[in-house]
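stage 2 :: seqdesign
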């Protein structure tokens, strides 16, 4: 079969495999760049012209998206090596060919996650402190800003160095007792690091990012998955009605101001309480003028008129997205229930594939994988949907440091430092999404659509699982990385399982809250205030 040369010129990769994987992945990179660019430009503060934070945020978000969307390429390149009858394709019958293809995917994972680790732990913290120093004093020289940023971000550099070293050494266990010299022991460690050190170090770093990302899932994505689709379903406010209520409130306050003026018409000085009230009423008058201008602009805009005709489609889209959220969370719930029933803490809740009960999304994607790129389109839509829900959750809740709200994520009003923190939270969440997908879609993400021939006499073709004979099935590279790490660190598997379970519980609670919470009115959307939480009586009309 004609193909393209791989790492070894004597081994050929089929054209359809090479073109199918690279062209689809290239299209996804371009799509990710466009989507992220639109989001970052939309949320960036219009008053800040420095493009540095925006470029860094775009690069980080694109990098994490293409890292996550490498999974369906991994599934395709793994599944395509076998026919549906369970036999290997002719060009994949040789194990060296399969190993070459798997290594190409594995090295791509290494590259993506190495760059992502650098971005999350080094580039983003350094950029945050660099631009923070510039905001404090615009006259600070660039060299001084770099020194200050490096000083504050040094702890993150030490953290990632410690993670890489711990991952490279801890998983090796003790040095075998061979009565060798110290030089022999060091040589043993060197050989182990050369053989497994890179994967072990990156696996540890990915695992830490995954745990961090699962907390972002619990805090933001869980609420976003319920609030985002419900926002399409709930009725939209009327600018004309809000303008009418605003005018009524203005009349009431104007009457109160006239009463205060008439009370002191004889020239007597105002008492402090009345003086403060008068100042407040006059300040509100300017505020009313601004709000009236916003409402009038909203009422006359073309987009408002278009939304009236799009209302039925908005409801249908909201219902579809809500069903998608419920299906995704149901798939997680089914697998988690199986894990708690058929596995335990000491095993890291590692679950045999034979114990999976019916999982609708897992079944649909596994069957769709037979016709590439249908599964890629579906998983891409799922990833972008979860990404949009994560940003929506961060926008609604805000960025907090314990009980202090640090930044608000508002279109055209987000501070540059807020964009960098948003990118960091988003990146951790998307790293965790691969692990969540591995739980929600266990068969698809682990084996794809592979089958193997079971038995010797009466042969039956069955889907691949963990009980397949050695050499008859192969794991995707991402599932293989996670499985090897979990077997060495069962505590990680247990922590991830508990956090995903907490994510499902918080989603249910968030769904109930979002269901009964009123939709923000037009004024709140226009100025980016999160409803009645801001205690502004002028907005609660």
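stage 2 :: out
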């Amino acid at each position: 079969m004609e193909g393209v040369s791989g790492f070894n010129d004597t081994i050929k990769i089929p054209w359809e495999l090479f073109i199918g994987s690279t062209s689809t992945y290239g299209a996804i990179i371009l799509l990710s760049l466009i989507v992220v660019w639109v989001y970052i430009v939309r949320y960036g503060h219009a008053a800040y012209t420095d493009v540095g934070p925006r470029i860094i945020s775009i690069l980080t978000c694109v990098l994490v998206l293409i890292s996550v969307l490498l999974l369906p390429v991994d599934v395709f390149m793994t599944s395509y090596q076998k026919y549906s009858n369970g036999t290997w394709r002719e060009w994949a019958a040789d194990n060296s060919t399969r190993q070459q293809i798997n290594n190409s995917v594995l090295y791509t994972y290494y590259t993506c996650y190495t760059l992502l680790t650098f971005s999350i732990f080094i580039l983003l913290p350094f950029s945050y402190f660099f631009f923070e120093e510039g905001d404090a004093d615009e006259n600070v020289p660039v060299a001084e800003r770099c020194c200050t940023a490096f000083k504050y971000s040094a702890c993150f550099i030490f953290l990632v160095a410690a993670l890489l070293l711990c991952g490279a050494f801890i998983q090796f266990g003790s040095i075998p007792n061979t009565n060798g010299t110290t030089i022999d022991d060091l040589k043993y460690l060197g050989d182990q690091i050369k053989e497994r050190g890179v994967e072990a170090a990156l696996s540890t770093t990915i695992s830490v990012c995954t745990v961090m990302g699962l907390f972002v899932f619990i805090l933001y994505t869980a609420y976003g998955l319920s609030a985002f689709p419900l926002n399409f379903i709930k009725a939209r406010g009327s600018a004309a009605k809000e303008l009418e209520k605003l005018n009524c409130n203005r009349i009431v306050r104007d009457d109160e101001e006239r009463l205060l003026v008439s009370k002191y018409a004889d020239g007597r000085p105002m008492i402090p309480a009345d003086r403060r009230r008068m100042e407040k009423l006059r300040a509100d008058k300017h505020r009313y003028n601004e709000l009236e201008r916003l409402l009038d602009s909203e009422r006359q805009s073309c987009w408002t008129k278009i939304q009236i005709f799009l209302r039925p489609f908005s409801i249908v889209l909201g219902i579809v997205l809500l069903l998608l959220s419920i299906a995704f969370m149901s798939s997680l719930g089914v697998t988690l229930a199986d894990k708690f029933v058929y596995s335990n803490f000491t095993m890291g809740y590692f679950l045999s594939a034979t114990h999976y009960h019916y999982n609708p999304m897992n079944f649909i994607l596994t069957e769709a994988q037979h016709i590439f790129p249908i599964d890629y389109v579906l998983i891409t839509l799922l990833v972008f949907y979860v990404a949009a829900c994560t940003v929506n959750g961060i926008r609604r809740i805000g960025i907090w440091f314990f009980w202090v709200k640090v930044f608000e994520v508002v279109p055209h009003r987000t501070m540059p430092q807020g964009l960098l923190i948003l990118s960091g939270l988003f990146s951790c969440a998307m790293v965790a999404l691969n692990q969540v997908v591995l739980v929600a879609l266990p068969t698809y993400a682990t084996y794809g659509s592979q089958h193997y021939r079971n038995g010797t006499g009466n042969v039956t073709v069955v889907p691949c699982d963990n009980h397949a004979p050695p050499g008859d099935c192969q794991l995707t590279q991402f599932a293989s990385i996670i499985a090897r790490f979990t077997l060495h660190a069962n505590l990680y598997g247990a922590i991830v399982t508990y956090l995903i379970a907490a994510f499902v519980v918080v989603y249910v609670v968030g769904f109930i809250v979002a269901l009964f919470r009123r939709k923000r009115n037009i004024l709140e959307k226009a100025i980016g205030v999160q409803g009645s939480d801001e205690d502004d009586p002028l907005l609660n009309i």
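stage 3 :: structure notes
- DSSP finds 16 helices and six strands in the chain.
- Confidence is low (pLDDT under 50) at residues 1-11, 172-182, 529-541.
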